[in-house]
TrEMBL record:
<dbReference type="Pfam" id="PF00067">
    <property type="entry name" value="p450"/>
</dbReference>
<keyword id="KW-0349">Heme</keyword>
<keyword id="KW-0560">Oxidoreductase</keyword>
<dbReference type="InterPro" id="IPR002397">
    <property type="entry name" value="Cyt_P450_B"/>
</dbReference>
<keyword id="KW-0408">Iron</keyword>
<dbReference type="InterPro" id="IPR017972">
    <property type="entry name" value="Cyt_P450_CS"/>
</dbReference>
<protein>
    <submittedName>
        <fullName>Cytochrome P450</fullName>
    </submittedName>
</protein>
<dbReference type="InterPro" id="IPR036396">
    <property type="entry name" value="Cyt_P450_sf"/>
</dbReference>
<comment type="similarity">
    <text>Belongs to the cytochrome P450 family.</text>
</comment>
<dbReference type="InterPro" id="IPR001128">
    <property type="entry name" value="Cyt_P450"/>
</dbReference>
<keyword id="KW-0503">Monooxygenase</keyword>
<feature type="region of interest" description="Disordered">
    <location>
        <begin position="198"/>
        <end position="224"/>
    </location>
</feature>
<keyword id="KW-0479">Metal-binding</keyword>
Length: 396
C-alpha cells in the first residue's frame, strides 16, 4: 500500500497489526506500528524509554531556500509535543493553566455564541459544506479567543498553520514552498508581537509568555523563539484536532441514520456520543516515539534509536477492550479510550475539544433535526495529523 492510500484509510493495516504477534513494521511510516490498546498505553506511560523527540516526523524536507525564508522570523524552537523531561514540563505548565477547567468553563459562552452564529449564517440555505462552514471556523475562533488574538488576524493565522503543515507533509513545487514559508514567517512575527503585548494579560498567550520568560525585563531572543514556536503550535493544534473531531463525529452520526435519530430522541446521550466519536475516529491518529535503550515491547526486540508509531486510532478499535469495536454506537457504555493520549503527553486541550463538540451536537439536535448527508462519497484527508473529511456536504 502506498503512503497516500494508507493515510486515507489506515484501519485495515491497523487490524492486521493488532492480530499479528508482536509489533508490525509499517513501511508506509518507516516505523514499528504500536497498534494494540495495551501497548499504546504502555508506550505512553514510559516516556523515559520512548522519547517524544521527532514526534511529528515530516514526510517532506523543504529546500534550503525555504529554510532561509523562515530563518529571519522568530520561532524554530522546540515545542511541547516533541520534548521530554524538564523541557516538556516547562512548556506544558502554562498550557495546563491556560486550558484549566475553569478557563474552559469561562470560554463556553463565547463558544456557544459563535456556534449559534455560524449555524444561523447557513440555516436558511438548507445546505452547507460542513468543514468550511462550521468545523474549521468554530475551533479557530475559539482558540484565537483564548489566545487573545484580534479576530481579524485569526483567518490568516489559521491559513498559515495549514501552510506550515503542507510544507512538511505535502510535496509541492519549490516556489509554492517558498510562498508558504513566507506566510508562515509573517505569522511568526505576528505571534511574536502578540506575545510581547500579552505578558500581563489573563489569557493563553499571557500564560505562555510569562511561563517561558519568567521574571522582569524583556524576554531574550531564545525565550522569544520558544514563546513564538509554542504559540504557533498551540494555534495549529487547537483548531486542527477539534476541526477533525467535529467533522468525523457529524459524518458518522449521519452515515447511520439510526444513530442520528436516536440522538435527537435522546439528547441526554450527547456526552456519550462525544466519547464514541473520539474513540471511533481519533482526531489525531498517533505520534512517533524514539526508543532510548534496547528493550522488548509485545515480544518484539527494539534497539536504541528505533522509531515506533503509537496509534491512538488503532487503540480505539481494539476488540480486546471495546465490544463491537468497529461499530459506531452512541448508546454503548463508555470505556476510557486513548484518543487524546495518556500520561504526561495527554492532550491539554481535550476538555476544550469535547466541550465544542458537545455544544455543537446540542445545537444541531435542537435547530436542525432534519440534518442528513447530501452525498455518499466522503473522502478523508491524506494525513494522520488530523483525521477529517476533506469536504462534508449536509442538507436539511
Amino acid at each position: 500500500m502506498d503512503r497516500e492510500a494508507f493515510y486515507r484509510d489506515p484501519y485495515p493495516v491497523y487490524a492486521r497489526a493488532r492480530a499479528a504477534p508482536g509489533l508490525t513494521f509499517a513501511e508506509e511510516l518507516g516505523a514499528w506500528l504500536v497498534a494494540r490498546h495495551a501497548d499504546v498505553r504502555e508506550v505512553l506511560g514510559r516516556p523515559d524509554d520512548f522519547s517524544s523527540k521527532g514526534a511529528l516526523q515530516p514526510d517532506v524536507i523543504p529546500g534550503p531556500r525555504v529554510f532561509a525564508e523562515l530563518a529571519g522570523a522568530p520561532g524554530g524552537a522546540p515545542v511541547v509535543l516533541s520534548t521530554d523531561g524538564p523541557a516538556h514540563a516547562r512548556y506544558r505548565r502554562p498550557l495546563t493553566r491556560g486550558l484549566s477547567p475553569a478557563r474552559v468553563s469561562a470560554a463556553l459562552p463565547f463558544v456557544t455564541s459563535t456556534a449559534g452564529d455560524l449555524v444561523a449564517s447557513f440555516a436558511k440555505a438548507g445546505r452547507v459544506e460542513w468543514m468550511s462552514g462550521y468545523a474549521r471556523p468554530l475551533p479557530a475562533a475559539v482558540i484565537g479567543h483564548l489566545l487573545g488574538l484580534d479576530p481579524a488576524d485569526v483567518p490568516g493565522v489559521v491559513r498559515a498553520g495549514h501552510q506550515a503543515e503542507e510544507l512538511l507533509f505535502t510535496p509541492m513545487p519549490e516556489e509554492d514552498q517558498i510562498a508558504a514559508a513566507h506566510e508562515v514567517a509573517a505569522v511568526r512575527r505576528l505571534m511574536d508581537a502578540h506575545a510581547a503585548g500579552s505578558r500581563t494579560d489573563d489569557n493563553l498567550a499571557g500564560e505562555l509568555s510569562r511561563g517561558l520568560a519568567p521574571g522582569p525585563g524583556e524576554p531574550t531572543a531564545g525565550q522569544r523563539d520558544e514563546i513564538t514556536s509554542n504559540l504557533h503550535n498551540l494555534m495549529l493544534a487547537g483548531h486542527l484536532t477539534t476541526t477533525a473531531l467535529l467533522g468525523t463525529a457529524v459524518h458518522h452520526l449521519l452515515r447511520d441514520r439510526r444513530q442520528w435519530e436516536l440522538l435527537c430522541a435522546r439528547p441526554e446521550l450527547i456526552p456519550a456520543a462525544v466519547e464514541e466519536a473520539a474513540r471511533y475516529e481519533a482526531p489525531v491518529q498517533g505520534f512517533r516515539r524514539t526508543v532510548t535503550r534496547p528493550l522488548e515491547l509485545s515480544g518484539t526486540q527494539l534497539g536504541e534509536g528505533d522509531r515506533v508509531f503509537v496509534s491512538f486510532g488503532s487503540a480505539g478499535r481494539d476488540a480486546a477492550v471495546f465490544e463491537r469495536a468497529d461499530e459506531f454506537d452512541i448508546a454503548r457504555e463508555p470505556v476510557r479510550h486513548l484518543s487524546f493520549g495518556h500520561g504526561l503527553h495527554g492532550c491539554p486541550g481535550a476538555l476544550l475539544a469535547r466541550e465544542q463538540l458537545r455544544i455543537t451536537l446540542e445545537l444541531l439536535v435542537r435547530e436542525l433535526p432534519g440534518l442528513r448527508l447530501a452525498g455518499e462519497d466522503v473522502p478523508m484527508t491524506a494525513t494522520l495529523i488530523h483525521r477529517a473529511p476533506e469536504q462534508l456536504f449536509l442538507a436539511w
